[in-house]
Amino acid sequence: MGKSLAVNQHILSSTLSLRLNRRGNSFSQSRSSRDLMTEVTPYKRDISVNHTTLALAAERILNEENESLRQACTRAVYTSWYYQTNLTEINRRIALSAQMQYSSMKQQSWHKVQLWQGLKNYLLSDEIRRQFEALSVLGTSALPVGDLTDYKNVLSIMSETYNTATICGYQGARKCDLSIDRDISPLMVNSRDASELSHAWKTWRDNTGKKIRNHFSIFVELANKAARYNGFRNVVEMDLVPYERPDFRQEIANAWEQIKPLYLQLHAYARSKLRKVYGSSIVRERGPLPAHILGNMWAQKWDVNDILMPYPWKPQIDVTNEMVKQRFTPKKLFEVAEDFFLSMNMTRMPHTFWRHSMFEAPNDRPIICHASSWDFCNSYDY
Ligand SMILES: *[C@@H]1O[C@H](CO)[C@@H](O)[C@H](O)[C@H]1NC(C)=O
Ligand SMILES: *[C@@H]1O[C@H](CO)[C@@H](O)[C@H](O)[C@H]1NC(C)=O
Which residues carry attached sugars according to the database record (predicted)? Predict the structure, then answer.
């Protein structure tokens, strides 16, 4: 630790109230870092510091950045939550502006961290070095402000289109306000009419995917552009950074190879069961399973137990009646779930969760009703 490093004064002085030993003259700073930056920039001369001083400076700059990023992040997440639970144009604009502020904050802190590029390797603590690494990928905030606004707008338009899409009922049914959570998802689980299911699957895609299509190409273009500003070839490379594993793709490919034999068997089993119900014109003997008959709009789970259950005569436990008898409410479901997690020694939900969460859809306004959990960036409200 005794060895001294030559460090550009400009970098160290950008941290607050740091006492530096500058060629024997000690000077103490207590003004804001911005004042110091302007004051010190003209010097741009190297000074000699030891590792401890460097570590201290690194920690201070991280603390400062942490706090301002945290506040901006909380505001961006909070306004975005407020918008999604009350979809109005005003709320959308407020959320957008908070996100823009957060982005510009990230840009500023990225600039400060860039100054440390050459010094990172001298930082002795892995933890501090890792935080610098994390702050040195700017993400989409690297876009020029016009592009960034377009990017955020396109995202919020796509999300709103996707989340508020409705379809008409099957075969001339007049109702055209069927929504994914309230009507279509239950239909996917319960209907065994392949044409009705196909109608739901297709029209919902027409009203989401097709309408999003043009926005999506803009999104891809801007996301790749942002990645290039960060020094990556494309957005995939950038998105893989948070996993902190250089061979992440290979690891996933290996995991898939391990699961594949079991998956193939399950797939063949499900296909033969579905063929018995829907016939060979809908479910072919070889090849993929049709997505619309799997009980889930995204075929992400195969929610057709009556068809797939291997031993259908085995009694099943259905707790619905008992739950009705015990007067379960949506909130009670969350309380029971919390008891379960507490019994595994996990942490209690914060009081803000109980106070602010939306457990039931209000019927006085449109919202995004898809279940989601949020990180409000304040280290207690998730
Ligand atoms: C910055 O915040 C993160 C997340 O809350 C925390 O793990 C880290 O220790 C903080 N860094 C500093 C230097 O305080
Ligand atoms: C929804 O947001 C609007 C502002 O756009 C506000 O006037 C209204 O009170 C909000 N509704 C609720 C129930 O919070």
Answer: 66, 86
